[in-house]
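Issue: ligand-bound run for 2-phosphoglycolic acid - logging full I/O for the record.

Environment: standard queue, default settings, no custom constraints.

Inputs:
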Amino acid sequence: MACQRSTTEVRSTLVVGNWKMNLLRNEALDLVAELGRLGAVANELVDVVICPPFTALTSLADHGMHGIKLGAQNCHFSQKGAYTGEVSAEMLCDVGCSYVIIGHSERRRDYNETDAEIGRKAHHALQVGLRPIICVGELLEERQSGKTLEVLFRQIDEIVETAGADVVSKSVIAYEPVWAIGTGLAATSAQVQDVHAAIRAHLEEITVSGAVPILYGGSVTAANAAGLFSCQDVDGALVGGASLKAQEFAQIVHEARQRTR
Ligand code: PGA
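Outputs:
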């Protein structure tokens, strides 16, 4: 279902592909080349970012990205030091990243990342010139018990408390209901619009800029992208599974272009 959006206040759209732990370097290069051939690249109104595994970043940066920007899927909150297995925000800048996903629900679930840590990561990432894409989202049982906004506001408040309103104002927020990630059960456009509008109002209340781009993530496909992009408060998408398929991702970028025409 499409929802209302006014044509007079069109913000630019951001389409981000989160490849998660997929693709070897050659496969990554092939996919980006294919996206280039399909024209799934940025223009003045649509920014396209892909977030491959760390191991593919250098190869992609070195081989040219066809106007697609590079992001990472995580970073550490410290500049450097004895953090075995971690990667710093500076290292990501060094290999050509301009974005970093922070606080994805898979990291919250599997590595117990807290909102305070997420805030520290966002703060540090922005300091070194990476734009954080900060993920928030509710569990199925939280939605079913009517706690969606309470949970989201709690996550946002704690991140803002740690990172500062200024940092969050310069970041991107991704609303990713946990029950919609990788399940094929995307939230409806109406559900997404309601939550995004509430998040935007809450951000303004706590002195974060209401102009922060708010992306939706969770089973975004070529088939549901147009409906999602038609929502007034949806500024783009964070795409997991569908970003690994060139045609599908290219179609999502195409739908984003239609939105901002
Ligand atoms: P999905 O993943 O599109 O496969 O649901 C989204 C995400 O995890 O960011």
